[in-house]
From TrEMBL:
Organism the protein comes from: Actinomortierella ambigua
Lineage: Eukaryota, Fungi, Fungi incertae sedis, Mucoromycota, Mortierellomycotina
Name of the protein described by the UniProt record: TPR-like protein
TPR repeats by residue range: 817-850
Domain of life of the organism encoding this protein: Eukaryota
Sorted UniProt keywords: TPR repeat
Amino acid sequence: MALSSKAQAIERDFYNARAKANYAAFSELARRYVKHNKEGVVFAQTALLEQAVGEAEQAVRKAQGWSFLPSLDDTPEMIAQPPAIRPESIQEAVDNLERVVTRGSEELQEYAGIVLARAAIATNAPDRLQRVAHYLRNIQLPPAKIPTGHNFALVACGLTVKGLALEDEGKLPEAIVCYDNVSLMVQAAPTEKCEELAVWTEQALYRASLLKLRQGDQLAAIRSFRAYHNQALLWPNSFPLPRRATIYRYFTQCLSASFKSHTQINGANGSVSAVIDLEIAQIHAYWEDALYAVTPFPRATEKNWRVLNMIEQIVNDRKLFGGGNDADKRALVETIYRASQKTFQSPRILRFLFFSLVDMGQYDEAVLSLKAYLDLVEINQRVKEGASDEIFSDEQRLRLDVESEHDIVSVMVAGSRLYSKDLQQPDEALECAKKALETIQKHLHSQDAKSLLSQAFLYQGIAYGLQAAKAHEPDHRPQLYAKSLESLDKAIEILPLSFENHYARAVQLAETREIPAALVAVKQALGLNASHVPSWHLLVLLLSAQKDHNKALELCGVGLKESDWDKPETDGLVASQLEGEEYLALRITQAMLHDQVYGAEAALELHEALFHLYTKIFAPEPSSLGESLYDIQNIRQQQQQQFQMDQSEIELGSTLTVPTTAGGGGGRRRAGSILSVRSRNGGSEVGLNSNGTGTGAAGSVTNNTLDVPKANYASSITSSIGSTGSKGRRSGRSNTVGSASAVAAGGGGAVGLGRSPLGLLPTVPRETTKAIQRRARAKKVLVTLWLLSAATFRRLGKMQDALKATEEAERTDASNPDVWYQLGLLHTAQGDSETASVSFSKALALAPYHPACLARLGCSYLDAGSLDMAEGVLETTTRGQGWDSAEAWYYLGKVFEGSDRLVRAKECLWYALDLERSRPVRAFTEAVSRIAA
């Protein structure tokens, strides 16, 4: 019998109300529907049962204060359930439907059976599972012909209810099949959307994912996680966030574990890593948003351990997939800062922040987080002293936010490394190393912390060496050097196969001119790591100190072959910029040795190549360019453009299929990616040449070829003698290689966060300490190259060319004392002692303890007959940082000889001779780093 138009309109309204679970409208719609359609009683009573169940569920949840928050702690073995309703609260509606159900069509009877089954599963009746089986016994789920509208949601409801019943009976495989059928249905009908459908779809996908994990089927769980995520993009933002956070937590863990397993079986695969990295970056972002939406700031007695768990997982994943570019590192720091706003004085957060800031290169902020961490740990340890020495598991430490002694020592050791390597602050480095050693001795067994113990001794030794190098007290310096070697020997004793330990000991021995022992140590380092370029460089310098220049030059070629830089097939893109600097340093030493072996003219031929190499090395790093993969600003804007893993999935097993939608090519997607920088400040950095035009990573850094020397040097130095400097002439400089320092300035790339630990996010990013230091190194290296050319020209008698090269060095960095010292030597060679004296004075004004300048000053006093003045200057020099200056000791010996103190004179002259015999072509600690990597 055809329905009247009035009945059809009411039926449509009824379907819409049921789809939206608008229970308040059900009673009136049922009355009107039955009035205009006498045969619609089954349809009406089915809806009224839905209303009774829905309202009963709402009432019991409100009475018990239930929400989805317990789902934050769901595990595959224990899934939180909403409170059950009492059977009597809906019994009348059940009875009403059962009385009339046979009066409807077969289709209506099936939908009524689904609603009855739903009502049964929602109660705490003892026979509820039997009732569900009874109601669904003759219903085909899924049906051969999938309906549409609210009936589509009822089918999803029936499959989910059947799965819940099977799950309660312990029939997990059969339950998972039901849940998977829901997933297949909704994927096949993307246009079907209603609130009731979302409720049942979410429950089915949620339980399927966790049950598959319970069964140990990780790959199947990943497929369900992806299906859940793709559907969640279509749900309201607040629906239901705690369960979303749980899904993303396990999703992330499964992706990481599967990637590790795949890598172990099949080896590293760049394209696979890029695709999984992209996916896991998205999941991190959604996990963070979902968790923070339901996580308040903790009270005094609370620990937001879920936030700590998330951040730990994110940090570990970033280690797994690599640090990424500068924008990625900045994004991680911002992520940790956001976590600090959901936690309170968390040492774990400070630890993650410290390591991330160090990796990012924001060393000043890293120091703040380090100090805050050590202070907080010290306070916690004082509180703990009165309590029993309880041993916590990793899970307990996470929930209580208690740091293990191993983690504490790791931070102390890393802090010592930061202070000694990156900040050149030996006192602070020594303090951290001593704290680490003390903590290991008190709380850790040496065998369990061998690596940390060795590193602590290593950085303690390096710190002592740095203190000795900066010391001005001659009596104190030998003690510091002795302590340095003692610490380094202990590091080697603990880990004899660590090439870093042997290398550091070799550098220290070389600095104190114990050349034979240093040679043994560096050969041991090379025996453990033959590809370490600084070790080769140190060996070359040690051979040059023995005056075996031919052998040293030969080994230069061997060491250079170990580097990936300056090879046509790699173009310097495989190795890091720091490795490039090490390579360039060895090439400079090679040029100096070439000068010693073949003469200045032959050495000059190598200089142009050094300038070309400089421009390549100090151009912006490829890894510093591009946007961050780990930001979600565009994720929220482009939710509908998410990768569709149901159509092209990544199978992380013995074989792996890469979806083309997630990351083309072999690298990570950057420009045009569905992800972009959260703060939108991680764009590509470019340098500026002297005309102000931009230069990219692959572009030329200057407009001119790098000829040495240039014909258009500016005459700034000669006109500035006696003046205060040449800053006023900066804008008028010519477009030459000197402007390459501007490229290095622009190539630092990264910008950081202007904030202190646990503060608010900054609004204006700033340049990282690492970038600033890189620019300073770039200027220093460029000055070295120009002064190397200037010295070569001077020795060849080409004074004009030497002057022009020196002027270019001054253009690059007028505050470098070596520039003015080299100019003084040039004027001395020209017989202009007065102008030379002014140049040396300028150098000393910039660096009062410059050993070479002080030696020259002492010589000038000696030549003028002012023995007392000469003795004062030279005594200060040899007792201070010029203790290894052969010239200073020689002139001091001449001073004693002139004042008839022959014994002292003999001692000084013999010591000067010893120093000269062991002098390398370049100062050891100037050419190589004290720390291996």
